[in-house]
Write a structure and sequence with these properties.
Urease, subunit C, domain 1, 6-stranded mixed β-sheet, Diaminopimelate Epimerase, Chain A, domain 1, single chain, 17 helices, alpha/beta
Length: 533
């Protein structure tokens, strides 16, 4: 007999060729059976909890293949600049937040977007007079540049005499003085001065992030961390039974030897928490004009972007990580960065021989036409974030022009070429909500409403393809497809109940969908305040 039965619904199993079912039975945290109401009713006893879906959609729990998860937990309690649409509003929000926290508190987070007010980069003089008692270091939403006020610049030792570091840049005025914006590796000057959070603060951030994720139907995340603090935090939570969703904890590739030794001593984890992934960067981002292209930026012709990591060193890390049978996961955004990385992957595969390595390219945003087929040929997973298309589509063409833009966020082309495309959010760079990502992939509408029929519409994909990218494909990107990602007997009962029948909706209504119930391993862990039944 089942512990839990969900019936009267539209069950999208994600199993190829299986069609849709009406009901699901769950026993001991696993899927017991899937089928019609009548077929599942035989598993109901007096002890079974029965939930009527009332025609709503049941899907596998969403998997976000790219987050900065604990940073997201901290961001939930920080200043929010994402939709600040003028320099005045930007400064006002920082000033208001500063008045709410004790003097001396570092103000971080932010996630601002200078394209919201026409593209002018912020400066220290916008906020210095408003924050005399607080060091401020608020990042652009892509995480590849940040604004420091004078107190933060002083703490980081950044002066007119400070040279640009390798892989980074300090924005300067006509006299050579820093304006406050630091790009990529230049941000390290100030980050090094920010006091470390306590274990208790990090634990609270994890729980806040988990509550937020579960409310959105996200039952598993891949955390692309910048250090080992995340893995240590997840280990503490897991050991105490307080890890409410599944986590693939990824650490920096620069520490590959430490991870190699850690796996040798501790294995690779379990179904709730696992590790072995190593993350590195080739380049920066389009919004910060630090993504690495063959040709210069149309709107900043003095640069073609930059390599945030020395390519000789990065190639060595990739080779050593693969030789140690770790999971190689590398950020590449510009067309030159992606081609360079695919070349390295091809060389490593040729030298080390075949195995189930699942090389990943994170973002894979701006591809040369020749790159499209290489993902499938090499077995490289394109780990992409569809919401970025809805966001960047407002201004991306002014950066790289009409030709390069044709293979931007090329979801359709990659799938047609046979590549595995796994979706995520890049939270906090973009919202965590998978529904917003699905809407962006299916409609490719931009946030400004200027592209109601889709931005680069030939790269739109179907609703079912988008669901696969957020479920089974994302599970495969984390070596978990045997346990989750589809609704079929024997798999873990990680499920999401959506607020309607999404297959009958006009695609333009997808953005209005919300999650009514989230289930992890057969347990209801979130119920929408309006009621989940």
């Amino acid at each position: 007999m089942a512990d839990l039965v969900l019936r009267d619904g539209v069950v999208w199993t994600g199993v190829a060729g299986a069609g849709r079912a009406e009901a699901v039975a769950v026993k001991d945290g696993e899927i017991l059976a899937v089928g019609s109401n009548a077929a599942i009713d035989v598993f109901v006893s007096d002890e079974t909890t029965v939930i009527s879906l009332q025609g709503r959609t049941l899907t596998p729990g969403f998997i976000d293949a790219h987050t900065h998860f604990i940073a997201g937990g901290f961001q939930l309690a920080s200043v929010d600049l994402r939709d600040a649409d003028s320099p005045e509003e930007f400064a006002r929000r920082i000033s208001e937040f500063a008045s709410s926290v004790p003097a001396g508190t570092w103000i971080t987070g932010g996630d601002w977007d200078h394209e919201m007010w026409g593209g002018e980069l912020p400066r220290t003089d916008w906020i210095d007079a408003l924050t005399p008692d607080h060091p401020v270091f608020v990042q652009r939403l892509d995480g590849h540049m940040a604004l420091a006020n004078s107190r933060a610049l002083q703490a980081g030792g950044v002066t007119t005499e400070t040279e640009d570091p390798a892989g980074g840049a300090i924005e300067r005025d006509a006299s050579g003085a820093p304006t406050g914006v630091l790009k990529d590796e230049a941000m390290s000057f100030v980050y090094a001065a920010i006091p470390a959070s306590t274990d208790e603060e990090v634990d609270r951030a994890l729980q806040a992030a988990a509550v937020h994720a579960l409310s959105l139907g996200v039952t598993q995340i891949h955390d692309m961390a910048y250090d080992w603090i995340g893995l240590e935090t997840y280990q503490r939570a897991h050991a105490s039974g307080d890890l409410p969703l599944r986590v693939y904890s990824v650490v920096p590739m620069a520490t590959w030897e430490r991870m190699r030794d850690y796996v040798a001593e501790n294995g690779r984890g379990d179904d709730r928490l696992w590790w072995g992934g190593l993350k590195a960067f080739v380049d920066g981002s389009l919004g910060s004009t630090t993504a690495w292209f063959y040709d210069v930026y149309d709107d900043e012709p003095e640069t073609a972007g930059l390599m945030t990591t020395d390519t000789t060193e990065l190639a060595s890390w990739i080779r050593s990580s693969d030789e140690s049978e770790m999971h190689v996961i590398v950020h590449a955004i510009g067309d030159k960065a992606n081609d360079w990385l695919l070349d390295v992957y091809e060389d490593v595969i040729g030298d080390h021989g075949p195995r189930d390595r699942r090389f990943r390219i994170e973002h894979a945003q701006h591809l040369s036409p020749g790159a499209l087929g290489r993902f499938a040929e090499l077995g490289v997973i394109a780990s992409m974030q569809p919401y970025h298309a809805a966001d960047d589509g407002r201004w991306a063409q002014k950066r790289i022009g009409p030709e390069r833009i044709k293979t931007t966020y090329a979801f359709r082309s990659l799938l047609d070429a046979g590549a595995t495309v796994a979706f995520g959010s890049d939270w906090t760079v973009a919202p965590l909500d998978p529904v917003e990502g699905i809407d962006a992939a299916v409609t490719r509408r931009t946030l400004d409403g200027a592209n109601p029929n889709g931005w680069i519409p030939q790269e739109r994909i179907s609703l079912e393809e988008s669901l696969i990218a957020y479920t089974s494909a994302a599970a495969r990107a984390g070596y978990m497809e045997a346990r989750v990602g589809t609704i079929e007997p024997g798999k873990l009962a990680d499920l999401a109940v959506l607020s309607g029948d999404i297959f009958l909706m006009d695609e333009k209504e997808l953005g209005s969908v919300h999650v009514d119930l989230t289930i992890v391993e057969g347990e209801v862990v979130y119920e929408h305040p309006a009621g989940g039944e």
